[in-house]
Amino acid sequence: MVLILLIVTLTGLKFFEFRFMDDVSWWWVTGLFFLTLIWFEVFERLLGFDKKKIHQVFDEAQKRRSKGFFKKKK
User: Taking the complete model, does pTM exceed 0.70, yes or no?
Assistant: First the structure.
């Protein structure tokens, strides 16, 4: 998420030719686009970050269901 915010900010600064970004090449900004693409499509899958989030959601749902199942009915 930090990379995406950085890319959006740098793209806006470069597009509107803000002071210090006027001399910076577009290759730096597009390079960050490709770095982010590689991170989310390759490394996140290799490291299992995408599955870890999904498993946490399912584990929390399972815990909530099991708490409700074992409550005594009056």
Answer: no
